[in-house]
Design goal:
Helices cover 38% and strands 16% of the residues. By secondary structure, the chain is of the alpha+beta class.
């Protein structure tokens, strides 16, 4: 085996892995020490290792397991240490079969000093100055237009220290520029790194604070991607380039037309487990999903499609054939239990989506014994993927709560959410006293559990999740009819609720569907019938004594 026969993948921060056949040179901090290193080599690599150095110091040697011509590994316990280093070289070491000669090939070099010295703009060109030692390396300037965050970045080849801006981009800006060693086919940053540079736009760098309105679904997909990136703590230089890219302004873009925001999230590449937290943290959860303008496209994500279907079902503009189509979609994606909620106004998933005294007794056992019992109760091999409110889906959601109970308790979010329970119940009661009772049933499962015990606050999650979901969807319907409705009782809890959604996304996902179905029944009656009946408006007889305290003061 010779070095020229090697091919490898290097994990990089905020980029797709770089596929290379020659040593990769990159800027400091770009190596993703927590990623997977892959090597492909015909022939045999004996005693192959990844060797990490920082300057003259040897940091670690990691065995490289091999299957056929491919091998891959991570840095394991050394990842945190390597991530803190500025000067890093990762090499492939192996022994040649014939002659037993030890060979070493550097896969990636990230020097301690940044070889990019400056980035500036002069007329229609971007100027990039690099150290003499890096002058022979191919260089690409990736350029983001801060006024159009939904657009993909431009990839401009730097030749003799300069890259020409396209005609249609020269008057836009400001720009965020990240020079990357390698051509555009080898590396593609997802979002600008911290060392990227802000340069002025064509109009003296004027900040474009107003985005075109309304944005298309395609444009909103890009906004969702940016919002997710900022929420994860990456791409933070973009809001510095333009105030219009601050998270608060992005949330406004995403919620101006809630149905369009929902459709854009459906079309995005944001992972399913992150979507509930995104819907909550953006404030979209408080939006009216009635379709204002056509939002074409397939309902790719079942739970988001079900929210849209529930809105269409309740829309007076939907005819009988349209209602039948929406009910069929809800039956296929949401499940029969969701239709029962729509028909009766009662939570049909109560038995499969609750935590009771037996759950607490199991978790109180020694860890090994508790894990063994929980593995039998929540056997992933027995669970069958299906509609979102089927028993297996709801069991999976409860298992999520049980599995993450330590983190839930440690975060302290349930104490603060439970303190707001009285106000949330009042918000629910204003829509319908029956709706309050439907929500409260889930808390009845907590009989015999000491909710004042801090170690058991996780048991409040299923009930609280449904309560705040119902309150949010009820307020969304009220605000659609009367924009002056105050939704602060839920809006003020969004940071805590989104944190809960990140911990138990499957539960929150299902509870939002059930909540919307409960509210739909409370407002419109049984929409599963051929001719929906008018709902009589009942006077509320709820008093302060009827509202539960989940945690004693």
């Amino acid at each position: 085996v010779t070095p020229g026969a090697l091919a490898f993948e290097i994990p990089l921060a905020d980029e797709s892995p770089a596929r290379r056949t020659r040593t990769l040179r990159t800027r400091p901090g770009r190596l993703d020490a927590h990623g997977v290193f892959k090597v492909t080599a015909p022939g045999e690599l004996r005693h192959a290792h990844l060797a990490v150095q920082s300057g003259e110091r040897d940091i670690c040697r990691i065995p490289l397991p091999r299957r056929g011509e491919e091998a891959q590994t991570t840095l394991g316990s050394y990842a945190e240490r390597v991530a803190m280093l500025r000067d890093v070289t990762v090499s492939l070491d192996w022994t040649r079969v014939t002659g037993r000669k030890r060979l070493s090939v550097p896969l990636v070099r990230a020097p301690g000093a940044d070889p990019v010295l400056s980035v500036s703009r002069e007329g229609d060109h971007l100027l990039v100055e690099v150290e003499d030692s890096a002058a022979d390396q191919p260089l690409t300037a990736w350029v983001w237009c801060a006024a159009e965050p939904w657009c993909a970045p431009l990839a401009l080849t730097v030749v003799d220290g300069a890259a020409e801006l396209p005609d249609d981009a020269r008057d836009h800006g400001p720009f965020v520029v990240q020079p990357v060693f390698g051509d555009r086919s080898e590396r593609r940053p997802v979002w600008p790194a911290p060392e990227a540079t802000i340069v002025a736009g064509g109009d003296a760098g004027a900040d474009a604070t107003e985005a075109p309105a309304p944005l298309t679904v395609r444009q909103l997909i890009g906004v969702w991607s940016l919002y997710a990136t900022l929420r994860a703590g990456r791409g933070t230089i973009l809001p510095k380039a333009s105030e219009s890219l601050a998270p608060a302004n992005l949330r406004e873009l995403l919620t101006t037309d809630p149905r369009a925001g929902l459709a854009a999230l459906n079309g995005s590449t944001i992972r399913l487990g992150e979507q509930p937290g995104m819907v909550v943290s953006s404030g979209l959860v408080l939006g009216d999903f009635t379709e204002r303008t056509p939002t074409p496209g397939r309902r790719r994500v079942p739970w988001l499609g079900a929210l849209a279907a529930l809105a269409d079902l309740a829309d007076p503009a939907t005819d009988a054939a349209g209602r039948a189509d929406q009910l069929d979609y809800l039956r296929r994606t949401g499940g029969q239990a969701l239709l029962e909620v729509l028909a009766t106004g009662q939570d049909a998933t109560l038995e499969s989506a609750s935590i009771d005294q037996s759950s607490v007794q199991i978790t109180a056992l020694p860890p090994a014994q508790a894990d063994a019992i929980l593995a039998q109760v929540f056997d992933v091999h027995r669970m069958v993927p299906g509609p979102l409110t089927d028993d297996d889906a709801r069991f999976t959601a409860i298992h999520e709560v049980v599995a993450n109970r330590a983190e839930i308790v440690e975060s302290g979010i349930m104490v603060k959410l439970a303190e707001a329970s009285r106000a949330l119940f009042q918000a629910v009661s204003r829509t319908s006293p029956k709706l309050r009772k439907a929500v409260n049933v889930r808390f009845h499962k907590l009989d015999g559990i000491d909710a004042d015990d801090p170690s058991l606050h996780w048991t409040l999650v299923p009930g609280t999740s449904l309560l705040i979901s119902v309150a949010a969807r009820a307020l969304a319907r009220q605000k659609a009819a009367n924009p002056d409705v105050d939704d602060s009782v839920v809006r003020n809890l969004i940071p805590l609720w989104s944190q809960l959604a990140d911990l138990v996304p499957t539960l929150v996902m299902g509870d939002l569907l059930i909540a919307d179905a409960l509210v739909t029944h409370a407002v419109h009656g049984d929409l599963t019938a051929a001719e929906p009946a008018d709902v009589p408006v009942a006077a509320s007889a709820i008093t302060e004594d009827d509202l539960p305290d989940l945690i004693s003061e």
